[in-house]
Every structure is written in C-alpha cells, then in structure tokens.
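Weekly puzzle thread! Below is a chain. First person to post its structure in token form gets bragging rights.
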Amino acid sequence: MHKITFSEKVKYFGSGAELSDGKLFVSDADDLKNIPERKDDSHKGTYGTALIIAGSKLYGGAPALSAEAALRSGCGMIKVYTHEDNRGPLLARLPECIIICDEDPGVLEDELVKADSLVLGPGLSADERAKQITGMVLNDFSCPLIVDADALNIIASEHGGYRFPDDPTVIFTPHIGEAARLLGKEPVFIKENKLAAAKEIALKCNVITVLKDSVTFISDGESLIINPTGNSGMATAGSGDVLSGILGGLAARGLEGVDLAVTGVYLHGLAGDGAAAGLGKSSMIASDIVKALSDVLKCHELI
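Winning reply:
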C-alpha cells in the first residue's frame, strides 16, 4: 500500500479533482505479504475454522461460492450454517465442508464460540429466520466478522443505531445499494460520493468498510484505500460472495483489521483479472474467480 500518486489521482478521480492526499492510499502487490506463511509443522487447526452463515431456501449458491473461496484462501476448515435444502447440493459441490442445518438456536451459539472467523449474509434472505440469525450473531460473536449482502440490509432496517465494539475486526462489504440503505440515502448520492460514503459507514457503525463498485474503496473511518485490481467481468452474480469467503478465509488464518480488508480485496481482484485473462470478461462467472484464486496464491507462494 502506498500514498496515492498524482497520476493515480487523475486515473481514479479526473484531472480536476480536489482531494486531500494525507490519508488516501492505493493498495499494491506488497499487501500480499500480509498473507501468513504456511508452516511445514502444521495441521488444519493451524489455519483456523471459518463459519459461513449463509443461504436460504431460495438462495443455495451463495454459501457454496463463499465456502469454496474461503477454503481456497487457505483456511483449515469450513463450516456452513444454512437451510436444510442446501445440504445435498453443498456436499456434492464441496465435500470438504461441514454443514449445519439445525434450527435450534443453541447449536448456532455453540458454533459461534468455536469459530476463528465468521461470514454472515450471502444469500441469507430477509425473512424472520434471517433476522433472528443476524441478531444472534450481533449479540454473541467474538471473532473477526465479515458482514455481506442480506445481513447488511437487515442491520440497516432492524439495527440502524447499532455500533460494533472496537474488537474484534468487523468488515462490511456493501455494494452501492446496500451502502445507500445503511446510510439512509439515495444510491445516486453514494455513487457520486463513494469516498465520503465509505468513511461515513465506517464511522457510523465502527467497522471497516469495503464499498464495492467498478473501483472498490476501503475505509476504517480515517484512512481511505483504493483497490486497483479487478475488471468489469467481475460484475456478475456471486462475485461478492466470493469476496466475503476470501476475507473469511484470511481472517481464519489470522489476518485482521485494515490489513485483512486490503489484502482480501486486492487478492479478489487479482483472481478476477486472472479469470478474465483466461476466459474473457463477458463469459467469466463467479466460480471462475474462485478457480483463478488458486493460480494467484500459487504464484505468491513461489515468490
């Protein structure tokens, strides 16, 4: 990560932009050095357990994408808390994951305690079950938490004044529409004021914001970081689920704070660029980003 240069300022904001450079940064390949090295003397517990709380009767693909991305990011174990209808398809696609479908609230409470990282929201829907799950996580989580998709909408509608504790790390990953709901503003306003919106969400909720758009902006309420990786081919269903899984996987391995957000977003964009290089931007899908993730991490390990 480095301070924004003049040419980068022109690239992202235009030649007439008036910006304070003091706390405006651009992520770069050096941020991949934040990924913990794997040890020869290790086991699956060394790399942590990520709990993916995702999916509903209508949306079974989101937990699969998120879980596979977390595993491909190097975490040791994946557990998926989801709707019973998703058990069979999930096991068929990803036999490495442990699937929990018990509706007893005590089961989820126990799993929250055991996890090293949490991903909440992909495909969760906004029904009463989803609202209860989200409320339980907000009350009981004790490890890094990635909040995405439907969980963001539930927080906006049901927990508008909620501020997260200073520790552990909490990352919100809204797109423009979700950011608008979190701030009670119109999407067009968010689109035109992305830097300010990312910072405002971070300050309002005491989180790290990853504001997803054609260029993704990251803020902890003070610094603002621009992510330079990624491409228009990533504007496809499920791409955000992959990002949440990458963040959850890296968090399980021990990354936290701004380093977690910056590294995960940069890695996600690199994998998207790899998928586009192999398949083209028009035909790549979210699963291709997960597949390309392995090549990106392999190259990183060889450096």
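Puzzle host: Confirmed. Bonus trivia for everyone else. The radius of gyration is 18 Å.
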